[in-house]
Amino acid sequence: MIDSNCAMTLYDAIQFFREYIIQNYGADSETAKTYIRIADDFQHYAGNKEAFSSPESIIQEYYVLTIGVPPFQSPPSKYKERSARAIRMIQDIITANEPKRRYLNYRSVCPVPYQTILRRYEILMRNDQKSNGTIYTRSGRMKVFFVFLAGRQCTALGSITPKLFADFVSSLNNGYSSQGKASLLYTLRNFFSYDVFLEMLSFDPFPFLTGIHSRKHERLPSIYTADEVRRVMNAVDRSTPWGKTIYLMMLFACVYGLRSSDIKALSLENINWKSRSITITQYKTHREVTFPLTDEILFALLDYIKNARHNSDSRNLFIRLRKPYIPYSMNDHFGDKIFKYFEIAGVDTKGKHHGLHSLRHSLATNLLSSGIPVNEIAVILGHTSAASTKTYVWSDIEHLRIAALEVPKK
């Protein structure tokens, strides 16, 4: 723990940060080198300012300059997340708090005049048995609408005019994909489906919210051939603990089509060694599915447990390789960690996703290419309907046509 009775300068805090990083990651690790490089840049920036400004103001100023958003809002890209975390850790050190392993960055703030309305909307959704994820997502989308209104000096729903409403809809054309725009407008339509909000307006908003369409093919594809997937898998160095770990995770994605959330939630109790099967309750759908334990996965599983996984009280299958030996966060999708194997394998990722989920997408399309019906692929992927599965195989239109059931003659 940091001694709260000891006054610490910003220079001292940066030195403490360096020591903390080396102690937790090792001086020779790439992670430590990256964090220390960030600390060096920060120290260089702060060197000429510490005599004239408080450490807290310098930290906030540097966050804005480096991350490009107000302190301490979410970084605008994955690339800047590590810098943001390093700055937040130094801030904790200077205030005599223990640095955190993960930080919750401030999201967009709902303007004050609409905060009560937003809370009421959340209560109504909760009463309608909406999931926490749905409530969180829709609340975030409504903030976009409320921020727009506040920016136009409109501080009450009753003051919205048809023109202002139309301006908001038009404004989405610039900053959002068709799918993003559709999601916002669908949420807006849901919001005004509650009479308590609709009655506050002086006009009918629904003519502005009809005929909402999104171009499904606009999103980035995530499809790789079976040969490309094999090359990526073969690029993993399985002689290291991390290689054994990520290889097994990738196997679960490309053989079983598991979501990253299900992979990280896997428990040792999910494995039935006697029947050579794995049974899980899916994190997203809450449905129970069972998979046969193939030889390839069985051997990779034994290799990981015996030679990579640390002894831990946690029953999660996958735990961190460094202290503290705890499960991985549900927010970690390993995209940046998997990308290097695509590079080593020489697989072109330009214009494509390249994380665990891309392996799941590839499985769906490769199964369809092998002649497996869409409804069977839906079962394999754990979808509640074949309609969900089709979003994973949208790029393979010709095979979809072949796989389509014939319309029975009357």
Automatic annotation (TrEMBL):
InterPro entries per the UniProt record, alphabetical: CB, DNA_brk_join_enz, Integrase-like_cat_sf, Integrase_catalytic, Integrase_recombinase_N, Tyrosine_recombinase_XerCD
CDD domains: INT_RitA_C_like (cd01188)
Residue ranges of every copy of the Core-binding (CB) domain listed in the record: 94-196
Sequence ranges assigned to domain Tyr recombinase in this UniProt record: 219-405
GO biological process: DNA integration; DNA recombination
UniProt KW Transferase keyword: no
PROSITE patterns in the cross-refs: CB, TYR_RECOMBINASE
Keywords recorded for this protein, A-Z: DNA recombination, DNA-binding
Full protein name: Site-specific recombinase XerD
Biological source species: Ruminococcus albus
